[in-house]
Design a protein that fits this description.
heterodimer; A: alpha+beta; Rossmann fold; Jelly Rolls; 2 domains; six-stranded mixed sheet; five-stranded antiparallel sheet; B: alpha+beta; two-stranded antiparallel sheet; 14 helices; 14 strands
């Protein structure tokens, strides 16, 4: 028996890095604003897992709850319903001390720079370094190199009044990064920046993610920086509508393209198909498909391998072995006939499966569907 | 370890905007002035209640236990003064005689008098220097004349309208005291208080003539209002006080200068509405000051709320913010106290010149106002910081 899960294939749950600890675990989180009659739900049972070193970009129309979710993760709001774990600590019902301790491991970059007008750029950044008890000499070196890296080397001792909006924002970014946080939460960090310094900031983020294992969650509308994302989370009306691992989706699309029926689909359609696939797991010896059963799913092998067995009435013979990137189960869906072979997992394997209805919808959207179908079937026999 | 290089955020925020700081300081200075004026008036009025004790030249005072205030006409036997004189360590002991209710002074014009007003008559033995005032000592010869007395220059003008600046004209005034003719031979300086609108000083001999019936039977000078004891050099007040308490019978109270002063002030403070009125004044000053400080500190926090919220989001603890505001409040209190006390000093000087009240910036009153200022700044700081401490950072941006 194969075990069906509710995990979407594109979540990347079974991709590389799945062994890394989860920095953020959001489970069934609801959030409300206002009291009594005016109480309005802003978040509706959201789920999100972010692993160490991932860069997650959250998008969605304004008012969709991105910032609310971000501030909940950042301990800046009290968790009302559901479970939210950050760096292994449950935030629901957490005491003040834990929250204060946790905050020191996070780095915040807000939409507004919120710098103290009375302090210089250096002193503003130093407020974060002092807090974690950084050695003053190390702090000095780090603050200066960060500010220089962000193009403010000659303005280290300027007060915010004599800095431009973009420069102030960069000081705020340096303040969010100086203490080497384990998790960076950024709300539109590049909104006030020009292309060049925006790029510099996200490059810095990538370095931190790669070298320090820093996890980054960023709310942004800036499509110039979408390329740095490991995952893109889309929120609509207080709900995570899609949560897509960019790398994994492209792997699935490559695999799908290998299937002649899907070869002519556009990347857009392919990624929609990938979105609809669910993860299935099987242990060695598990029967994934049994000959004679009605066909319900189309399978893509993400990992592992399977044997194809055909029972010709007298005996069951292994006719083929399928490996990662190959697929099976399509014939029964196309012809509406029972399964014509039995598939048994040779080892612990992972499949991405597409339901019959979705499979057909995809085929019907393709203008060349009938043609392709016939040719495919013809080619097989 | 990391403490030494902390960014002095409280100081930086305070001094960043000079205009705002100036306004804040004016506000706090005003609150300081308000409290100083209340404390000053209270002290001035209490001090004037005990001015006579302050002016008497003595180390220990003997009074009747029933004499709850200077104006109460409760006396003790002259024999106690004699007893006191015999005690070791006592240089001298003198009786002071006072009359108030029967001591009515009338100004006579053309043989008719006004209705007259009570004035305090003080009878003193001329052979002794019972008042420290050189002025009285210098006019002893005038007091030797029959029916003569010195009048207090600070006596209420409205009631005792005499030409006090001109000794000759004063002596020519036709005056009656307790129904008998009196010559105002000169003037001296003591001051009025709640109970007394004016003062006369005369010899005990004259005093006995004006008030022969103050004792129903016998010598009017055999009952004494206040006994003044002067110590021999080398004797401590405490030791002599103990001896006197042992020697004199329990129908008198033996008090040091300080004790007597306190007893008198205590009466006015606690047993009359005066203390309460000034307490209310001080509380109002404090509350007004608190409102001003609250406004100053609250607007400072409110204007920097997003920045503070960012610090909170970074992991700065409640203790940090409370510490920050306490430091800011204390700095404000100290910096605001300076101009406030300078202004108060000016006010005191001006009032002292105008009213004759004893307006003094004593150490206790300065420390009281300073403590109250700090308390009110810290208190309002704590009130103002509540929101920052209680709220989720996200709701503060």
């Amino acid at each position: 028996m194969d075990s069906q899960t509710t995990i979407p294939a594109t979540s990347g749950a079974f991709a590389e890095g799945m062994h890394l600890p989860k920095t953020v675990q959001v489970a069934n989180v609801n959030h409300y604003f206002g009291e009594g009659e005016l109480r309005k739900q802003a978040l509706f049972s959201n789920n999100l897992d972010v692993r160490r070193g991932e860069i997650v970009i959250m998008t969605g129309p304004s008012g969709s709850g991105k910032t609310t979710l971000l501030t909940l993760i950042g301990t800046l709001r009290t968790v009302q319903e559901g479970s939210l774990k950050v760096l292994g600590n449950e935030l629901q019902g957490a005491d003040r001390d834990l929250i204060v301790r946790l905050r020191r491991e996070l780095g915040f970059i807000f939409q507004a720079h919120n710098l103290f007008e009375s302090l210089t750029a250096y002193q503003n950044v130093n407020m974060a370094a002092e807090l974690v008890g950084l050695d003053p000499q190390i702090a000095e070196g780090r603050i200066k190199s960060l500010l220089t890296r962000l193009g403010l080397g000659d303005r280290v001792h300027y007060k915010p009044k004599s800095l431009s909006g973009g420069q102030k924002q960069r000081v705020a970014i340096a303040r969010g990064l100086v203490h080497k946080p384990k998790l960076i939460l950024a709300d539109e960090p590049t909104a006030a920046l020009d292309e060049k310094s925006g790029r510099e900031v996200v490059t810095l983020f990538q370095e931190l993610a790669r070298d320090e294992g820093c996890t980054i969650i960023m709310v942004t509308h800036d499509n110039r920086i979408l390329d740095v994302a490991d995952r893109i989370v889309n929120m609509v009306d207080g709900n995570i509508k899609s949560d897509v691992a960019v790398q994994e989706t492209s792997v699935i699309c490559e695999f799908l393209k290998g299937f002649p029926l899907f070869a002519d689909l556009t990347p857009n359609t392919l990624s929609e198909v990938a979105d609809k696939m669910m993860v299935h797991e099987a242990d060695a010896g598990d029967v994934v498909i049994r000959q004679g059963d009605p066909g319900e799913l189309f399978y893509l092998i993400r990992g592992g391998s399977v044997d194809v067995l055909i029972d010709d009435g007298t005996e069951e013979k292994t006719v083929a072995q399928l490996n990662q990137g190959q697929y099976f189960g399509e014939t029964a869906l196309i012809t509406d006939e029972p399964r014509n072979a039995t598939i048994v997992a040779r080892e612990k394997s992972i499949f991405y499966a597409l339901g019959k209805a979705d499979f057909r919808v995809v085929l019907e959207t393709s203008a060349t569907f009938e043609e392709e179908l016939r040719q495919a079937l013809f080619g097989r026999q | 370890m990391t403490r030494k290089r902390r960014t002095p955020l409280a100081w930086k925020n305070l001094t960043h905007d000079w205009r705002r700081l100036a306004i804040a300081l004016v506000g706090i200075a005003f609150a300081v002035l308000l409290m100083f004026s209340q404390v000053g008036f209270q002290n001035a009025l209490f001090d004037s209640q005990v001015k006579m004790i302050d002016d008497l030249k003595g180390d220990i005072f003997i009074v009747s236990p029933a004499k709850f205030t200077l104006a109460a006409e409760k006396r003790f036997a002259l024999a106690r003064i004699h007893q006191a004189r015999s005690c070791p360590g006592v240089q001298a002991a003198y009786p002071i005689y006072c009359e108030l209710t029967t001591s009515v002074l009338r100004k006579m014009t053309d043989g008719k008098g006004n209705r007259g007003y009570p004035i305090r008559s003080i009878g003193i033995p001329l052979e002794a220097k019972v008042f420290s005032s050189k002025e009285i000592q210098g006019q002893t010869n005038l007091l030797r004349m029959p029916n003569s007395a010195l009048i207090d220059r600070k006596s209420k003008r409205r009631k005792f309208a005499f030409p006090l600046d001109d000794d000759a004209a004063l002596a020519a005034e036709s005056v009656e005291l307790a129904g008998m003719k009196l010559m105002l031979a000169g003037t001296f300086d003591l001051g009025t208080d709640f109970a007394h609108d004016g003062n006369l000083v005369m010899s005990d001999e004259n005093f006995a003539k004006y008030y022969p019936h103050r004792k129903r039977f016998g010598d009017p000078l055999s009952i004494v209002d206040i006994g003044v004891v002067q110590l021999q050099t080398g004797y401590s007040t405490e030791d002599v006080l103990k001896v006197l308490e042992k020697t004199l019978s329990k129908d008198v109270l033996v008090l040091t200068r300080e004790e007597y002063r306190e007893k008198e002030i205590h009466f006015w403070d606690k047993s009359t509405p005066i203390g309460t009125i000034f307490l209310a004044g001080k509380i109002i000053g404090f509350v007004v000051g608190m409102v001003i400080c609250y406004q100053v500190i609250y607007s400072d926090i409110a204007d920097h709320l997003p920045e503070f919220a960012t610090l909170k989001a970074m992991g700065y603890s409640t203790r940090y913010f409370v510490g920050l505001i306490v430091v800011e409040a204390l700095l404000l209190a100290l910096i605001g106290f300076l101009p406030g006390s300078i202004a108060s000093y000016g006010l005191y000087t001006w009032l002292a010149e105008r009213t004759g009240l004893l307006m003094q910036m004593s150490v206790p009153s300065v420390s009281f106002v300073l403590a109250a200022t700090m308390l009110m700044c810290i208190g309002s700081g704590m009130l103002a910081v509540r929101k920052l401490v209680a709220a989720d950072p996200a709701s503060l941006f």
